[in-house]
Design brief:
7-stranded parallel β-sheet, about 450 residues, disordered C terminus, alpha/beta, binds adenosine monophosphate, about 15% strand
C-alpha cells in the first residue's frame, strides 16, 4: 500500500516522501480512506503511531479539493491539550502542506495574542490550537468557527484530564452541526466514551493497538528500591548504562525540579519540563533534549504528553503515576515507530498499589528486580491508586460502529478530487457535488 493508493494527491504524497516516509503506517492505512470519505472517526492511537499524518494528510486533501478561489475561511480545526503538542502538530501540518496552497497557523497560551490575531485576520484554512487560548480569541472575535467542516480532537483523553471539557463544549457550540469529527485518544475511560458519544456521529472505530495497551516492543522493568535511594539508583543506571537520552517522569513539578538539580550536581546534563516553566524554557529544554545537548529530560505527565521525541530508548518512571493510564502515556514515548525501548520504573513500598493497578490495566505483570546494594528496607504502607481510573478497568462499552457497520453516513460528502482510494466504492463521481455550499 502506498500513500497514492490511499487517495492522496501527488502534491501531498511528494511532501510526505520528502519526509522520508516510504509507506503509510497502520493507523494511516486504516484511517485515511475513511476520513477522505467524510466519516467521523474514533481512533485509539498513541503518539509514535503516525496519527498526526493520519489526520493531517486527508484533511489537507479535503481542503485543497474544496478550496474557494477567493475566500479563506477557517475550515479545519485541530485541538490539542498542550502548547508543545500544538506546536508539533502545526510543524507537521506545515511540512505536509508544502506543495499545496493551504494556509495554516497555530495558537496557544503563554505567548502574546497580538501576532496570533493578526495571522488569523489574514485568513487560515487550518488552525491548530489549545482550547483555552482559542476560546479567548473567539471571545475577542479574532476567529470565526462558522465555516468549520472538520474538527479534530487530538489526545482527547488528556484534554479531559486537564479539565478542558467545558472549554471544548463551548468551542463546539459555536461550530456548525454539520461537520466531520475526528477524535484521537490513547486511552478510553468512561469520560472519554461519554465525550465521544456527545460529539461523534456513527463513528468508524480505528484501532492500531488493543485499547489501553502499551506499544509492543517495549520491555517493562521494575526496580524495587527505597524511596530515599531512588536518585542514587537512577544516577547509577544512567552512568553504568551510558544512557545518552533518557526521559524521566516524576509525579510533581517540585519533584522534577529537585531531581534535575541533583542530576546536574552529579555531572549529568538535565532539564525539567513542567507546567510552571515558561513556554520559552519548555521549548528550549525539549530542543536541547532532542539535539542531545542534554541527556536527561525530567518531566511531569502533563508537560510530556504528546511530545514527539523520536527513537527514545529509555523512559524512566522515577515515581509511578497514581492514575494507571498515565503509565501507558508515559511509555508511549519509547519503542516508537517500530524501534525497541525500555520502560523502567523505580518502585518503593508506598507505590505497590499503583503498580498493581497498572498491571491490571495492562493485563500483564511487570518484571520486578532488586539491584545489589539497593535492597528495599522500607515498609511504608502502599498508597491507594486514584479511584477515577478504576472506571476504565471495566468492560468496554460499545460506543462505536465498526467500519463495516450500516448507517455509517459521512457528515460531509466524499471529496475524491485527487486519487480515489484503492477499493473505494464511494466518491464524488458517484454521489455528485456537495449539497451544502461551504463558503
Ligand atoms: P506521531 O504519532 O504523529 O507523533 O508520529 C510519530 C513519528 O512518526 C513522527 O516523527 C513522524 O514524523 C513519523 N511518521 C509518521 N508517519 C510515518 C510513516 N508513514 N513512516 C515513517 N515515519 C512516520
Amino acid at each position: 500500500m502506498t500513500f497514492s493508493d490511499l487517495g492522496l494527491s501527488p502534491a501531498i504524497v511528494k511532501a510526505v516522501e520528502e519526509k522520508g516516509y516510504t509507506k503509510p503506517s497502520p493507523i494511516q492505512e486504516k484511517a485515511i480512506p475513511h476520513i477522505l470519505e467524510g466519516k467521523d472517526i474514533l481512533a485509539s492511537a498513541q503518539t509514535g503511531t503516525g496519527k498526526t499524518a493520519g489526520f493531517t494528510l486527508p484533511v489537507l486533501q479535503y481542503l485543497t479539493d474544496t478550496k474557494h478561489p477567493k475566500y479563506r475561511p477557517l475550515r479545519a480545526l485541530v485541538l490539542t491539550p498542550t502548547r508543545e503538542l500544538a506546536a508539533q502538530v502545526h510543524d507537521n501540518v506545515r511540512e505536509y502542506s508544502k506543495y499545496v496552497n493551504i494556509r495554516s497557523s497555530v495558537v496557544f497560551g503563554g505567548v502574546k495574542a497580538a501576532s496570533q490575531i493578526a495571522t488569523l485576520k489574514r485568513g487560515v484554512d487550518i488552525l491548530v490550537a489549545t482550547p483555552g487560548r482559542l476560546l479567548d480569541l473567539h471571545d475577542q472575535k479574532a476567529v470565526s468557527f462558522k465555516r468549520i467542516d472538520i474538527l479534530i480532537l487530538d489526545e482527547a483523553d488528556r484534554m479531559l484530564d486537564m479539565g478542558f471539557a467545558r472549554d471544548l463544549n463551548k468551542l463546539i457550540s459555536f461550530m456548525p452541526v454539520e461537520r466531520q469529527n475526528l477524535m484521537f485518544s490513547a486511552t478510553f475511560s468512561k469520560d472519554i466514551k461519554k465525550l465521544a458519544e456527545g460529539i461523534l456521529k456513527n463513528p468508524v472505530s480505528v484501532e492500531t493497538a488493543p485499547q489501553n495497551s502499551t506499544a509492543k516492543k517495549v520491555t517493562h522493568k521494575v526496580f524495587k528500591v527505597d524511596k530515599g535511594k531512588k536518585t542514587t539508583l537512577l544516577i547509577k543506571l544512567i552512568k553504568d548504562g551510558n544512557w545518552e537520552q533518557v526521559l524521566v517522569f516524576t509525579r510533581t513539578k517540585h519533584g522534577a525540579n529537585k531531581l534535575t538539580q541533583k542530576l546536574i550536581k552529579d555531572g549529568i546534563s538535565a532539564a525539567a519540563i513542567h507546567g510552571n516553566k515558561s513556554q520559552g524554557a519548555r521549548t528550549k529544554a525539549l530542543k536541547n533534549f532532542k539535539d542531545n545537548t542534554i541527556k536527561v529530560l525530567v518531566a511531569t505527565d502533563i508537560a510530556a504528553r504528546g511530545l514527539d521525541i523520536p527513537l527514545l530508548p529509555y523512559v524512566i518512571n522515577y515515581e509511578l503515576p497514581n492514575v494507571p493510564e498515565d503509565y501507558v502515556h508515559r511509555i508511549g514515548r519509547t519503542g516508537r515507530a517500530g524501534a525497541a525501548g525500555e520502560a523502567i520504573s523505580l518502585v518503593c513500598s508506598e507505590e505497590t498499589e499503583y503498580q498493581n493497578e497498572i498491571e491490571k490495566l495492562l493485563k500483564e505483570k511487570l518484571k520486578s528486580t532488586v539491584l545489589d546494594g539497593f535492597e528495599p528496607t522500607d515498609t511504608t504502607p502502599p498508597k491507594r491508586a486514584a479511584t477515577q481510573s478504576k472506571s476504565s478497568f471495566g468492560k468496554k462499552k460499545k460506543t462505536t460502529n465498526t467500519s463495516s457497520s450500516q448507517g455509517n453516513k459521512p457528515k460531509r460528502k466524499p471529496h475524491f478530487k485527487g486519487n480515489k482510494p484503492a477499493g473505494s466504492t464511494s466518491g464524488r463521481g458517484r454521489t455528485g457535488a456537495p449539497k451544502k455550499k461551504r463558503f
